[in-house]
Specification:
Strand content: under 5%
Helix content: 55-70%
Shape: elongated
Pfam family, one: hAT-like_RNase-H
Number of strands: 0
Domain hAT-like transposase RNase-H fold: 160-259
InterPro entries: hAT-like_transposase_RNase-H, RNaseH-like_sf
GO molecular function: DNA binding
Number of domains: 2
Protein name: hAT-like transposase RNase-H fold domain-containing protein
Number of helices: 17
Radius of gyration: 24 Å
Structural class: mainly alpha
Length: 337
Amino acid sequence: MKALENKCSANDAMIKNYLLPKFSAGSLLLGGKLFHMRCSAHILNLIVKDGLDVIGDGIEKVRETVTYWSQSSRRLELLEDTAIRQLKMKSSKKLVLDCKTRWNSTYLMLEVALVYKEVFIRLQQRDNQYKNLPSESEWELAKVMCEHLNPFYKLTNLFSGTKYPTTNLFFPMICEIRLSLKSWLDSKVEVIRLMATNMTPKFEKYWDKIHGVIAVAAVLDPRYKMDLIDYFFPRMYEIDCELETQRIFELCNDLVSEYQAKEKGGLGEDIGESGVGSGFTSSSSSSSMWDVKGFESYKRKHGRQRKLTSELETYLEQEEISKIKVYQRLGLKFLKN
């Protein structure tokens, strides 16, 4: 853990002391204000690792069970025979033994082990050397852990996905993660409360102020604009909501002003009449990872209305477009989820 945090500190020092001085202020957007953005997958890894520290030996029996039944081909054959012939299971998932330094492997281990829970119970009757069957409370802990780690696992896959999703997709999921941690603090399950207590300080250390690049990308998504900021920030920032909202708006405004001053094909040219830039990416799978319906309901009731004083505000006041319209304007066939 300390090594991961030291890596962040080393990166900060390298950016500040070695890279930024190599560039003239005028060559970087906003004088380099947005130059450094920490690796989101790395930050997520730090947050979850702090949460898993509180589990202790709570899932050790599950780990021992997976280890035992993965050790030899004979045991694997017995497991498959019990699953397919006796219990008529159709799952073809392979047991996953985790690496303790990689939390996502622990998630996968628990997820697959839960599938074979009844198989392990039956195997205890067939193999008298198998002594590590988890208790019902330990299975319940594994289930609760899987349910709560699932959003983190999906977001990690999105960050490191081979299809390279665009940054506009990250913002709502990071916000949902923060709101989840907030709700976990009031959980009836003690281990979840402890996890949230451990994870929240790390989240606030790195993501208390949503990085400008991520927020601007969400604003420039013609489905969301500032309405997505208005939807999430009051639930995330009880005290500094207006301040944080204004920070994002002013950042967008500063970027537009700088592009206009440099005469490098302003924002309006990139977005065009359709409101879709050439780099726009839509992902139906990512949409299911956060409360899209809640946002749509909010937008219908509380959508922004402003006096138009700039090109940015003119863009923000244009009607948001739906996913179907995006696909139509890009000339693509829309596939329903």
